[in-house]
Amino acid sequence: MSDASPSESQSSTAVTQRESHRGGAPATPLQTEQGNTTIDTTVVTKVAGIAAREVRGVHNLGGGVGRALGGVAQRVGVGDERSQGVSVDVGEREAAVDLTVVIEYGESIPQVSQAIRDNVIKRIEGICGLTVTEVNVAVNDLYFPGDETQEEPSRVE
Amino acid sequence: MPGVAGAVAGPGLPRVTVDATGRMLGVSATAQADGRYAVDLCLVADLVPLHPLADRIRTRVRGAVTRAGVGGALGGIDVEFADLAAPRPGAAGLAGGPR
């Protein structure tokens, strides 16, 4: 079931002045007479991840390998679950978001995808003040209740 | 102040000020050609609208600098939000979410 990846696009509108800032470089300076405000790409990424996770039917974010690596990174204290499965392009005033999600079995994928889009757009516009031109959702896997891998009992006490 | 979780040196040019009292992360002041000083802040924010927060930060910095008697020397105040703070324990994500 994994790697089905039906990707859907919110809009074909190109991001004007779209500059690739993947990787945490500063983006979105808003210039005023009192000074500039800059919101780093990391922040936009985390807002998108948190917003996607809020949607009912979203079990997790990220591909299988990404989730595994993210879990390891978090255990050693260098990863952040909130940016897993999220990639953003941030321009001067606009942002485009790519999400990889795992959806709970039984939920309508189109409805969940649309709910993700709506919430991500609302949150990024509300928190970062950016216009979101695209939210691409790739459904990477389905989650079945009981899928959790149970930890093997220790062989020694 | 509410909405600001902390300060960091930042991903690019480090914003750090060192004086006799110690090292202040996330703050630097740069002399401008007009004799004033531009202040650069690099912050970790809570999950709140960031542009209004930046405006409140500027107002607060201007007030503090003016009260210190050096308001005339203050130039622009650049605010960079470098990261988001982890949600507080027990917080259920963003308020008003669809869940």
Overview of this protein structure:
The complex is a heterodimer of chains A (157) and B (99). By secondary structure, chain A is of the alpha+beta class. Chain A is 29% helix and 27% strand. In chain A, a hairpin with a 3-residue loop joins strand 5 and strand 6. Chain A is globular, with a radius of gyration of 17 Å. Chain A starts with 6 loop residues before the first strand and ends in a 14-residue tail after the last strand. Chain B is globular. Chain B contains one helix and six strands, in the order E-E-E-E-E-H-E. In chain B, strand 2 and strand 3 form a beta hairpin. In chain B, the strands form two sheets. In chain B, strands 1, 4, 5 and 6 form a four-stranded mixed β-sheet that branches. Chain B is an alpha+beta fold and 99 residues long. The mean pLDDT of chain B is 87. Chains A and B meet through strand 3, helix 1 and helix 3 of A and strand 5, helix 1 and strand 6 of B. Strand 3 of chain A pairs parallel with strand 6 of chain B, so a sheet runs across the interface.
Question: What is the gist of this entry?
Answer:
The complex is a heterodimer of chains A (about 160) and B (about 100). By secondary structure, chain A is α+β, with helices and mostly antiparallel strands.
**Main pleated sheet of chain B:** 4 strands, mixed
Question: What percentage of the residues of chain A does DSSP assign to strands (E)?
Answer: 25-35%
How many DSSP-defined strands of chain B? Answer: 6
Structural category of chain A: alpha+beta
Output the keywords.
heterodimer; A: 157 residues; alpha+beta; two-stranded antiparallel sheet; 3 helices; B: 99 residues; four-stranded mixed β-sheet; 1 helix; 6 strands; 18% helix
